[in-house]
Each structure stands twice: as C-alpha cells, then as structure tokens.
Design a protein that fits this description.
0% strand, 275 residues, mainly alpha
Amino acid sequence: MISYLGGFVLLAALLHATWNALLHGNRDRFLSMTWMSVGIACIATVVVACVPLPATASWPYIAASGLIHGVYNLSLVRAYRHGDLGEAYPIARGSSPMLVALGAMLFANELPGLAQAAGIVLVSGGIVGLALQRKRPSRATLAAALLTGVTIAVYTVVDGIGVRHSGNAMSYTAWMFTFYWLMPLVFVSMRGRHALRAPLADVGTSMAGGAVSIAAYGIVIWAMQFGAMGMVSALRETSVVFAVLIGRLFLHEEITLRRFASCVVIAAGAVCIGL
C-alpha cells in the first residue's frame, strides 16, 4: 500500500497537473507564466521572512535550482506554444523519472529495489505511451518538451540533494523560489514593460496557479528528504493521468481506449513504487 508519503506526492501530482492546465488554458502562455512566477515569488518572499536560513551547505543547490527552474519555465512555455496539454505534458514528464533515478544513483548512491525500479519503468513507459498515441509531435514540440524533461530531471536531483543539506525543507523551498523574481525581468527584457498588462481576471488566475505550483513542488521537496528521488519523481509524474482527465473535462481533449490503458500502466507503476 502506498505510504502516507506517497499519498502526499500524489496530491502534489494533482496540484501540478492543475497549474499546468491553467497555464495551457491561457492564450499568452509566456505572460501567464510570468504572472505565475510573480505569485510564486511573492509567497516565497513572505515565507523567507518567517523561517530560519537554510544551512550554508545548501546555498549552491538553491542557486543552481533557481536558475535551472528559469530555463524550465521558458522551455515549458515553448512546448505549450507548439503542442496541446495532452501532447507536450506527457513527453516532458515522461522523460524525467528515469533520468532522475539515474542521477540519484550517480550522485546520491540511491539504488531502488526491484519493485520500485519496475514501478519507475512502468510510469515512464506509460507516460511516453500517452504521448506516442497522438499524432506525431512536431520537431519544435518534441525538442521543447524533451528540454523541459531534462531540466525537470536536473532540478529534481539538485533539490533532492540540496534539501538534505538544508536542515529545513520549507526554508530551502522558499529561498529557491525567490529566484522566480527573475522571470518578470526576462519577460520585460524580451517584450517591454507595457506587455505585462493583462486583464485583472487573467492576472488573478495566473497568480493562483503560482500558489498551486509552489504548494505542489514544496510537497515534492519535503518528500525527497525522506524518500528516494527516483521514486518520488515517478510518483509525481503520475500527474499526467490527472492532466489527461483535466484535458478531457475542461479543455475538451479526447480520451481513447489506448490512452486509458496507458493510464492504467502508470497507476500500476505507482502501486509498485509504494510496495
């Protein structure tokens, strides 16, 4: 049975799929991601004023992760510019658990058990299967989604190691997310300050998505203090199942029998990870 730790990571998966759907549902995803980042950075700034500083050994990881997240945000926006949620999201998320497991093995000496390794393979295979069932993605979509997957794997391993040096997961998470203040600077440098203007409702939706995002990944960082990075990453990427359901219910995307079968494979992998 999946432990309470796995239950929290599955909650994070649901939250993650939710904020990605909010981002994809907006016409101007770059602008939406920028306002999401402002929401995240505002919350992080308030939290850092209320928590102790993380241990000195974790600061290089905080800085590295903050910068990698910036690359992730830009590549995710590019992926959603060219592909829909059900196409780009599974490619990006499906390419990361195996890379995280490999990185954890190389840099943190984490070796998953047989059942957990099988679960990681099932989750990754099911996610990639979701992507391949659709029309062949364009080269631009594939390149951006794969870059997104690589950045996910890199920042996950960095954070998995960094949070264990920090002494305080909330402090580590908050300081890392203060780097999201860089996103509006990047946006303004590319489009100009006037382009930040957006209807109040859109700004509110985007900033709410930012709040959901920081909660989702904050849970993951907390979980990586106690659980192996590869297993936590694979459980988190079950978010693609939630993304498929959200895409069907709210974005009117199709669910075929083959896509449903892939979701079953992903769920089976999640059960194996929890054994």
